[in-house]
Every structure is written in structure tokens, then in C-alpha cells.
Design brief:
The protein is an alpha+beta fold. It has three helices and six strands, in the order ααββαββββ. It comes from Pedobacter jeongneungensis.
Length: 132
């Protein structure tokens, strides 16, 4: 009986820790945005990504997306970030909204991720000015 209970608790804790690990991807991305680290963010890009940055919108390769994001950070150096919203209950989908504050402006960053094989990849990244 005790052994069965022990095995049950172990299996529950492994389920919990795997869910917690998956949810951390939005937290990680928030810290990369705060650091202005386009390279780390791009590691999570799908092979093609839909980028909507302010008024520019198109589908880009992973490398092109990284360069465009790097250019954005040069024009708008980040000061701080905060996670505004997070959806992490679907096993195949993640969505997060990060508020990105820069020296001159505040942006709303929406991140859509889908699961490919065993990891999540960003399929859409939207950066738009926060409306007052």
C-alpha cells in the first residue's frame, strides 16, 4: 500500500514539473526581451515566422526574423518587461503577452507558439505600441 502511494505521488510530481517547465517558456522569453537578446528569442522561432512589428508585417525565415528583431532592439533599447497574460493550459499551444518598456515608448508583445515534435516554436510575434 505504501509503495503504491509512493509511486502515485512520484507520478503526480513528474506531471506537475513537466507542466511547470513548459509554462516557463514565456517567462524565459520575457527575460530575453528585457535583455534585448534577439539571438536567444530567435532560437525559439519556427522555420518561418510571421512578424508584425509596429506597421510592418510579413513572413520571414528564422534568420531574417532575428535580424529584424535585432534592428528593433537597436531602435528601441528595452528597459523592463512584465508578463501581462499567459495561456499555458493547452498541451500543443502557448500564448503570451509581454509589456515591453523602452526609454521612449511602451510596446505590447504578443507571442503565439505551437508545439512541433517535443518543443514549442514561435509562429507569430507581434510588437505594437501600447494604446493609451
Amino acid at each position: 500500500m505504501i509503495r503504491s502511494l509512493f509511486l502515485f505521488i512520484i507520478s503526480l510530481s513528474s506531471l506537475y514539473s513537466s507542466k511547470a517547465f513548459q509554462a516557463d517558456i514565456i517567462d524565459d522569453l520575457s527575460s530575453y526581451f528585457k535583455a534585448g537578446n534577439a539571438k536567444e528569442i530567435a532560437k525559439s522561432f519556427a522555420s518561418t515566422i510571421e512578424l508584425i512589428i509596429v506597421d510592418e508585417e510579413d513572413v520571414y525565415s528564422k534568420a531574417q526574423g532575428e535580424q529584424i528583431l535585432r534592428d528593433f532592439f537597436v531602435k528601441h533599447p528595452p528597459v523592463k518587461t512584465s508578463i501581462f497574460h499567459k495561456i499555458n493550459t493547452n498541451p500543443n499551444y502557448r500564448f503570451g503577452v509581454i509589456i515591453l518598456s523602452t526609454a521612449k515608448e511602451t510596446f505590447r508583445v504578443s507571442i503565439t507558439m505551437k508545439k512541433f515534435n517535443t518543443s514549442f516554436s514561435i509562429t507569430e510575434l507581434r510588437i505594437e505600441p501600447v494604446k493609451d
